[in-house]
Amino acid sequence: MTWRIASQLALSGLSVGSIYAIVALSLAIPFKASRVLNFAQGELVTLGAYIALVLTSYGLPYAVMVPATLLIAAASGLLIERLVVRPIIGAPEFTLVIATFALGLIIRALIRIHWQDNVFFLPAPYAGPALAVGPLRVNPSYLVIIASTGILTALLVLFFQRTKLGKAMRAVSFDPTAARMMGIRVNTVFGSAWALSAAIGALAGLLLAPVIGINPELGHLIIKALIAAVIGGFGSLGGAIFGGLLLGVLETYTGALFGAALKEIIPFAILIAILLVRPQGLWGATPARV
Amino acid sequence: MRAHRIIIVIVAAFAVAVPILGSSYQIYLVELILINIVAAIGLNLLTGNCGQISLCHASLMAIGAYTTALLTTRFAITYALALPAGVFVTTLLGASLGYPARRLSGLYLALVTLGFLEVVSIAIEEFSDLTGGVRGLKLEKPELAGFPLHTAGLYYFVLAVAIIAIRAGLGLRHSRYGRAFDAVRQSVIVAQALAIPPGRTKLLAFSIAAAFAGLAGGLFTAVVGFIDPTEFDISASLRQITFIAVGGLGSVWGSVIGSVILTLLPEALRGADEYSDVLYGAILLAALVLAPTGIVGLFAPVFRRLGGGKAQLS
């Protein structure tokens, strides 16, 4: 393998990994706040892509459509938190896992009823022929994905370090009871965490749509995001990004070196190995064992 | 004769009369109910009693179905041997999943079983020369010891197996193992203090659940005559979870009631096929949020008045 091929692969691995990282981030935020892992997050990615599709069909220009999509997605996250999650907070883990799964099933089935299994392509202003960057050929969509992940990470760091709401979220995740006694509205924080997470999920949908097309199974990538979250350790935002990028790069190299079958299997091998050897993830600190 | 005995006699008489009075489609439907009952009982012992989340019950059923199907079609082994072989292979794979999974709980267990589900579906699609991949696998009608099973014969065979499975489920539920499952679910520490090894108990629960799933899969091949990976995907796992969550977690009769109602429900709403996933999801969500004890829990006072006492709810 020459250096050129190796770096070409690294680039596409990083862009795939960036998508995993974004979805893993969107899983980690509500998990950190409310200890609920949203198994319907994949469907929120799908939903984001379809919202964008509908808005585009109304003739909204891309620059207006993107923020509108994120806002609608955030509202739907708020709605889900209020209607589904809040009544079962504190319930046994079985209930939490299965309830979010059921929610995902409903969203996916509704999308499939309306749009069937057709694949739609979302036009994006940046999509176009591959660019030549030095000796490499780069799909501009990949560059946008990687850049968006970087910007999103920076914004989240600012949000959690500098803003009142971000600090409140960290306080709630540390100790909800103490946070409530300090005058933090815990329910508002839960709601905002879910809204933020839904918006980030929709962003992943927006970024994916021009690359692989919109279809009801788009959300299936949640499995990869979950594995990324396991690699990084649950609830760790840095871990989510690290896990996502690592998984994307590993997957791409495995595919190139050993073929597609192994590429499909490798994420699960990693998942099982990590859960057996180091269940708290390579990054996190919470033990998973009883 | 107590009231609950009378109910059982009526249901049994009805079950026996189905092939005589019912159309071939109605017979098929009751067979599906019976298969779902077998699968649900296994899942309920693992999830309801032992408290272990499993999202891969459908893939264990797939392993049973594919093993039975491949042995009968590719190796010309009689169904009477292929079915137990399928159960054996599934139990073995269930145990090999349970071995690493016995140390995990909650979320992490959900992830491992979800991973297992994905790996099984990838394996079915990758080895398409053997399994038919996404195109599926078509099967001959099964024969038992040289006699081809026709509609009525197959029906009574499935019915007999389902009754044995219910008996076995009830027996297990009240054996020391069943009580050990309950102890592990309620508190691992208390279980240990009572000299119940949590790891081994969970491993046993995984193996038993797999055996029931494998049996259901083997029956499914014979009844439906065609299997493909979509029959055993995550929606199928969630459907089985719906059976036990709606019927009643930790109760054998809950598994039975849930399977009967939820297999019939989409039939009652025919013409709305595409809405079946929405329906199942909504029912599951409603059951979890509004009635966590399931139908058996909701109607517990009624059951008790019928004379079954507490055992009736098991």
How does this structure look, described?
The complex is a heterodimer of chains A (about 290) and B (about 325). Chain A is mainly alpha-helical and about 290 residues long. Chain A is about 75% helix and about 0% strand. Chain A has 11 helices and 2 strands. Chain A has a two-stranded antiparallel sheet with strand order 1-2. In chain A, helix 2 (about 40-55) runs parallel beside helix 4 (about 95-115). The radius of gyration of chain A is 19 Å and the shape is globular. The model of chain A has no long low-confidence stretch (mean pLDDT about 90). Chain B is an all-alpha fold. Chain B has a domain at about 25-230. Chain B is built from 15 helices and 4 strands. In chain B, the strands form 2 sheets. Chain B has a two-stranded antiparallel ribbon with strand order 1-4. In chain B, helix 3 (about 55-75) packs antiparallel against helix 4. The longest helix of chain B has 27 residues, at about 200-225. Classes of the chains: A mainly alpha (about 290), B mainly alpha (about 325).
Feature tags:
heterodimer, A: 290 residues, mainly alpha, ABC transporter involved in vitamin B12 uptake, BtuC, 11 helices, B: 314 residues, two-stranded antiparallel ribbon, 4 strands, disordered C terminus
What is the gyration radius of chain B calculated from CA atoms? 19 Å
Which class of secondary structure composition applies to the elements of chain B?
A: mainly alpha
Strand residue content of chain B: under 5%
Outline the low-pLDDT stretches of chain B: 308-314
Mean pLDDT across every amino acid position of chain B: 88
Number of helices of chain B: 15
Quick structural summary:
The complex is a heterodimer of chains A (290) and B (314). Chain A is built from eleven helices and two strands.
Blueprint (SSEs and pairs):
The complex is a heterodimer of chains A (290) and B (314).
Chain A: H1 3-34, H2 41-57, H3 62-88, H4 93-115, E1 131-133, E2 136-138, H5 140-162, H6 164-174, H7 176-181, H8 186-212, H9 222-232, H10 237-258, H11 260-277
Antiparallel strand pairs in A: 1-2
Chain B: H1 3-21, H2 24-49, H3 57-73, H4 79-101, H5 106-126, H6 128-131, E1 137-138, E2 143-144, E3 147-148, H7 151-174, H8 176-186, H9 188-193, H10 198-224, E4 226-227, H11 234-247, H12 252-268, H13 276-290, H14 294-298, H15 300-308
Antiparallel strand pairs in B: 1-4, 2-3
Helix pairs in contact in B: 1-7, 2-7, 2-8, 2-10, 2-11, 2-12, 3-4, 3-5, 3-10, 4-10, 7-8, 7-10, 8-10, 11-12, 11-13
